[in-house]
């Protein structure tokens, strides 16, 4: 068995975090460049979106009219501009921020995953080379993201329908809407909530791994999701434990951000804390992407699939070949 493949196969919970730390610290330069150029702007969007929307559209964001005036003659005579143009501008702002966040997220995923693949395949890589290859890698990732969005929407609609049916059956059987749910209803809701929670966790694992598959293999969309579902078999518990820890860390970061920025009083204090939290989010996002990529290699090794340098380098050659040709053409042009 290949030494690299054997290393991944026996990598445990703590080993994954240790490997992620080692690979990040041993290649500080390129990961710092990727973080500053892509991940940090994404983090600034995360920490500043609500503050900017609150500043542009007012404290109440959509409706600048005081609630006390609603229903009064003054409110009735107020032009409809606030309920139409302001609302439209607000949602256009939210959509633009969401699109920018998605694009930066996909670019950062492509850049980090591709960089780690180059490191494991012992290929010399630079920031310039990675960022020139990213647009080509991004195509497959966009297809996968599109299908993940569709599946997510279908799942949400399905879960909503199930909840509606449960509530409808309870109302029909009881003849009225109960003020306090009975014990059987509570048990059913707890079971349903547990299933939804576990299902959400499992889907999160599959979708995260599908993004890595889309970058490192010639598989995209639904096929990437199927491949990630097969890869995760046998390592579901390990992957879930890692995801739960990362999610809890994100929750702590989010609460710290809200405590110091959202609920802060001083404007300059908010700006300073926002910058600090953006840096924290950036570093943790980078670490999370590295961990997700390592989990991919762990799952591949568990199923006996090739993870050694030669097979990985063969896949990367498809992307790097175009870069090498472009780079040589630029050198000729410069001469």
UniProtKB/TrEMBL annotation:
It comes from the Eukaryota. The keyword Metal-binding does not apply. Keywords: Membrane, Transmembrane, Transmembrane helix. The chain crosses the membrane at residues 30-47, 95-120, 141-171, 183-216, 237-257, 277-299. PANTHER family: OS08G0107100 PROTEIN, OS08G0107100 PROTEIN-RELATED. This is Uncharacterized protein. The lineage of its organism: Eukaryota, Viridiplantae, Streptophyta, Embryophyta, Tracheophyta.
């Amino acid at each position: 068995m290949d030494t690299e493949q054997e290393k991944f196969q026996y990598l445990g919970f703590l080993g994954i975090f240790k490997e992620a730390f080692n690979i990040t610290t041993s290649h500080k330069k390129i990961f710092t460049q990727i973080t500053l150029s892509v991940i940090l702007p994404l983090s600034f969007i995360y920490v500043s979106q609500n503050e900017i929307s609150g500043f542009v559209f007012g404290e109440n964001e959509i409706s600048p009219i005081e609630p006390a005036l609603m229903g009064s003659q003054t409110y009735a005579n107020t032009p409809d501009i606030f309920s139409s143009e302001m609302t439209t501008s607000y949602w256009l702002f939210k959509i633009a921020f969401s699109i920018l966040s998605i694009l930066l997220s996909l670019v950062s995923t492509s850049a980090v995953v591709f960089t780690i693949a180059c490191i494991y395949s012992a290929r010399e890589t630079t920031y310039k080379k990675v960022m020139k290859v990213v647009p080509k890698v991004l195509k497959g990732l966009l297809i996968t993201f599109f299908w993940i969005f569709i599946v997510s929407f279908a799942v949400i609609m399905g879960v909503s329908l199930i909840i509606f049916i449960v509530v409808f059956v309870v109302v029909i059987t009881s003849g009225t809407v109960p003020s306090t749910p009975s014990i059987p209803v509570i048990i059913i809701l707890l079971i349903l909530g547990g299933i939804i929670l576990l299902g959400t966790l499992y889907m999160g694992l599959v979708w995260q791994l599908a993004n890595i598959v889309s970058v490192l293999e010639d598989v995209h969309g639904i096929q990437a999701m199927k491949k990630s579902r097969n890869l995760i078999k046998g390592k579901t518990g390990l992957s879930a434990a890692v995801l739960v820890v990362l999610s809890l860390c994100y929750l702590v970061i989010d609460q710290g951000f809200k405590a110091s920025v959202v609920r802060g009083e001083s404007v300059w204090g908010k700006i300073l804390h926002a910058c600090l939290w953006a840096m924290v989010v950036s570093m943790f996002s980078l670490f999370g992407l590295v961990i997700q990529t390592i989990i991919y290699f762990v799952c591949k090794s568990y199923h006996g699939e090739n993870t050694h340098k030669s097979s990985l380098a063969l896949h990367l050659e498809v992307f790097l070949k175009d870069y090498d040709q472009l780079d040589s053409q630029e050198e000729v042009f410069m001469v």
